[in-house]
Amino acid sequence: ACCSCDQFTQGYWKNHPDWPSPPCGVDYGKFFSSGQTWLEVLQTPPKGGNAYYILAHQYIAAKLNVCNGCWAPCGICTAEELFNKYTPADIGTLKGNDPLRQQFL
Fold first, then answer.
1. What's this model's pTM, rounded to 2 decimal places?
2. Which of 14, 16, 59, 102 makes a 20 to 30 Å CA pair with 8?
3. Is 87 exposed, middle or buried (0-12, 13-18, 19+ CB in 10 A)?
4. pLDDT one-digit tens code per residue, 9-47
């Protein structure tokens, strides 16, 4: 149990892009160093199991839920550190049990 707010999935946010005004200072126009907007990242399927997009989709849903008044899950800061350091191209080439890919997963 967390709080009395509505927590929504990545699918909900992808299909309802009228996102909350971010009290947490989020720029929806730029998703870290991906070269994409938040919505573009959310609409990008994780081709070939690209762990960047798998984590990004979960992160975006969690962050939007936080901006909507919910609590922040434990891994949100770790995800931000990874997104600040790596791009989708960096992670998209990693396969299987690569340690960095596993960290994103």
1. 0.85
2. 102
3. middle
4. 899 998 988 887 765 677 888 999 999 999 999 999 998
